[in-house]
From TrEMBL:
Species assigned in the record: Hericium alpestre
One cellular-component annotation, GO: cytoplasm
Main location: cytoplasm
CDD domains xrefs: AdoMet_MTases
InterPro entries tied to this protein: Efm4/METTL10, Methyltranfer_dom, SAM-dependent_MTases_sf
Keyword annotations of the record: Cytoplasm, Methyltransferase, S-adenosyl-L-methionine, Transferase, Transport
Matches recorded under HAMAP family: Methyltr_EFM4
Gene label: EFM4
Function: S-adenosyl-L-methionine-dependent protein-lysine N-methyltransferase that mono- and dimethylates elongation factor 1-alpha at 'Lys-316'. May play a role in intracellular transport.
One example GO MF annotation: protein-lysine N-methyltransferase activity
Identification of the protein by name: Protein-lysine N-methyltransferase EFM4
């Protein structure tokens, strides 16, 4: 089975995410609860630490999270010193964007650009001062979005919607830019197989270690975080 071929599930539908975020908006309005943190606080911290080390705030990078949900990762970058005006999040669920904007307001992150965009069919808008949204990002983040997309309905040729995703991500990146992805559906090796290809032009850059578990004589992590880079021309 190719690494992008998972059986379709409810988690791959927009209806599912619309329902999740409708509930989370109501919860936030009622109790101030910011909603679920996918893969837990530790994954957010580790992705933010990786960014600070490899794409530091001092370089004034343009950063976008694809499928930004409630925006937790972007707010961690804000706290780490990145310029809010150079941070963006897109999500295809309008209530996800509404929730992230409400939280941004409460956390002093109003200047973060948060918008509705179906990444499989639309291109995110560029930010002020950015030459272009295609080929204009220094860092693209994905925390659980490739996972969700890979659970979507297959097309008439039996292809998963995840098939073209790594190439679309690569198109967003500047030469020398990075993508950092965390997944619970794909192993590090599977992510390498899908993202570091001739078509994407991406190369493996580094990985983030997560706690391992052992079961039945095998050991592994429950999720993987891997970085790829779009090489600069020689
Ligand atoms: C597992 S959640 C992770 C959300 C967020 N990254 C986080 O860590 O909290 C997956 C997210 O991807 C979004 N998503 C799925 N397919 C998408 C698409 N085609 N375009 C944009 N967003 C999408 C969902 O709405 C959802 O917010």
């Amino acid at each position: 089975m190719a690494s992008t071929e998972l059986p379709p599930s409810e988690l791959g539908t927009k209806d599912h995410w619309d329902n999740v975020y409708e509930r989370e908006v109501a919860n936030f309005e009622e109790t101030g609860d910011e909603g679920e943190i996918w893969f837990g606080e530790d994954s957010v911290e580790k992705m933010a630490d990786w960014a600070v080390e490899n794409v530091p705030p001092s370089t004034q990078p343009f950063i976008i999270e694809v499928g930004s949900g409630n925006g937790t990762l972007l707010f961690a970058l804000l706290d780490a010193g990145y310029d809010a005006k150079r941070l963006a999040g897109i999500d295809y669920s309008p209530d996800a964007v509404k929730l992230s904007k409400m939280i941004a307001g409460a956390r002093g992150g109003d200047a973060i650009s948060l918008g509705v965009c179906d990444f499989l069919s639309e291109t995110p808008s560029s930010l002020e001062g950015q030459a272009s949204s295609v080929g204009g990002w220094d860092l693209v983040l994905d925390k659980g979005t490739y996972d969700a997309i890979a659970l979507g309905e297959k097309d008439e040729h039996g292809r998963s919607p995840a098939v073209g995703y790594p190439a679309r991500i690569s198109q967003l990146l500047k030469e020398g830019g990075h993508v950092l992805i965390t997944s619970c559906n794909f192993t590090e090796e599977e992510l390498k197989t899908s993202f570091a290809t001739y078509e994407t032009g991406l190369v493996y850059h580094s990985r983030v270690s997560h706690p391992t578990f052992s079961f039945g004589g095998h050991s592994g992590s429950s999720y993987a975080t891997v970085a790829f880079q779009k090489p600069s021309p020689p």
